[in-house]
Amino acid sequence: MPTGVHLRDARNQLFDAAERILRRDGPSALTSRAVTTEADCAKGVLHRHFADFDAFLAELVQTRVDRLEGRTAALRGAAGTGTVDGNVTDALLNLFDPVAVGIVGLVIFRDDLRARLRQNGHGIPILTEAAAMIAAYLTDECELGRIAADADTSALAPALIGAGHLLFADRKTPPPDASAVKTIVNTVLADVLQRRLL
Q: What is the pTM of this model?
């Protein structure tokens, strides 16, 4: 293992290595040694940049949460275009990539990481922010009259996120296709989509 290799942007290289591990092997394989091996650097590099492994993981999670801001803007920008169920389906398909699903599992599994993230105001990161993203989008569609005016978007959004996560959570089966996700979306939104027409 090289010990003198200089990393240009060590933090981002370590994050990229962690994401590759999550994508390939899942959250149970994510250890500090696995990350530094994947990044092809000495183990001490991680500890020079982060107080401990949970600090590293907390920042990794935050980088993924930060990416949701752009997705939220794009989804809200789609309000009034396409179909509501199509837009939500696309959002869920984009959200639940293997890294995001792995991070959710990691947060659920690691008590210390979850406690650290709660100090920063997170519930279950990615799921919490994704539910807020879907709720904001559905509220926009409510105001445009494309779903029922009395739709409880704060209840519909976590139902969509929870059902979506269940579809993607099993690493041993291939991820669901768009039609499976759309079936869930249509089931959850059926009432508010139908009542807008009454």
A: 0.87
